[in-house]
């Protein structure tokens, strides 16, 4: 994985601030010894300007990374704290350069505090979060890679869960469609059966009515025959 440009520039800003602190201390020593400090003052002004430009560039890059979601919100907050600390250190170094009462405490803390990278003190890790305090640049970078890998793994797991839920939803939808088709078929079958039952009932009633009519006709015929027989019977005697 390629190094993070933001962290590289942050590391460069830390080295510039370290150099400013060393030169301010050297200038103050020359002043106490009555030596010329003109060249050192010019160099310090140039370094302070360079330090400020790098800090401003870090702010711009951080804003772009957060707005485009290239880094997490947690990492954005952590880097914002680092930028704020750089701005504070710049003000302190600027005041120390102008002998505004911040020397020697600021210079001493700048030279003695912070992490170490390649044998060079980093004076800007004093107010870092606990999880990165005392770590060098490469250690912080590796930590960020691990965090990103863990986040990627979490996103992959979440994507897998959402994919399974989507598949389950589709299967449930398909099952509901099949059940609805079965219910529609049953409703049609019941309706057809009911129609057939009504038709058969009407047919039976018609047959029963015809049977009743035929029975009555037979009875009438038999009665007529009986009447005729009764009427004829005395005549034969």
TrEMBL record:
Cellular component terms per the entry's GO annotation: early endosome; late endosome; perinuclear region of cytoplasm; phagocytic vesicle; recycling endosome; SNARE complex; trans-Golgi network
Recorded coiled-coil stretches: 176-203
Gene3D superfamilies for the chain: 1.20.5.110
Superkingdom of origin organism: Eukaryota
Keyword set includes Coiled coil: yes
InterPro entries with a match to the protein in the record: Syntaxin, Syntaxin-8_SNARE, T_SNARE_dom
Protein name, as recorded: Syntaxin-8
Membrane-protein topology: Single-pass type IV membrane protein
Keyword Ubl conjugation tagged: yes
Similarity remark: Belongs to the syntaxin family.
Membrane-crossing segments per the record: 214-233
Functional summary from the UniProt entry: Vesicle trafficking protein that functions in the early secretory pathway, possibly by mediating retrograde transport from cis-Golgi membranes to the ER.
SUPFAM superfamilies: SNARE fusion complex
């Amino acid at each position: 994985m390629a190094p993070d440009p933001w962290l590289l520039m942050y590391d460069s800003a830390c080295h510039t601030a370290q150099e400013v602190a060393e030169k301010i201390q050297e200038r103050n020593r020359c002043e106490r010894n009555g030596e010329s400090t003109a060249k050192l003052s010019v160099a310090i002004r140039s370094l302070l300007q360079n330090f400020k430009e790098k800090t401003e560039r870090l702010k711009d890059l951080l804003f772009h990374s957060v707005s485009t979601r290239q880094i997490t919100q947690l990492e954005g907050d952590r880097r914002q704290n680092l930028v704020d600390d750089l701005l504070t250190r710049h003000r302190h170094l600027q005041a120390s350069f102008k002998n505004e009462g911040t020397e020697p405490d600021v210079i001493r803390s700048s030279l003695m505090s912070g992490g170490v990278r390649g044998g060079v003190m980093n004076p800007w890790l004093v107010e870092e979060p606990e999880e990165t305090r005392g770590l060098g640049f490469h250690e912080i970078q590796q930590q960020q890679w691990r965090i990103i890998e863990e986040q990627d793994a979490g996103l992959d797991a979440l994507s897998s869960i959402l994919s399974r839920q989507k598949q389950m939803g589709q299967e449930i939808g398909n099952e509901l469609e099949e059940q609805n088709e079965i219910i529609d078929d049953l409703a049609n079958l019941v309706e057809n059966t009911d129609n057939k039952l009504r038709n058969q009932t009407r047919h039976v009633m018609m047959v029963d009515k015809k049977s009743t009519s035929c029975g009555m006709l037979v009875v009438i015929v038999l009665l007529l025959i009986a009447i005729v027989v009764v009427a004829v019977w005395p005549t034969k005697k």
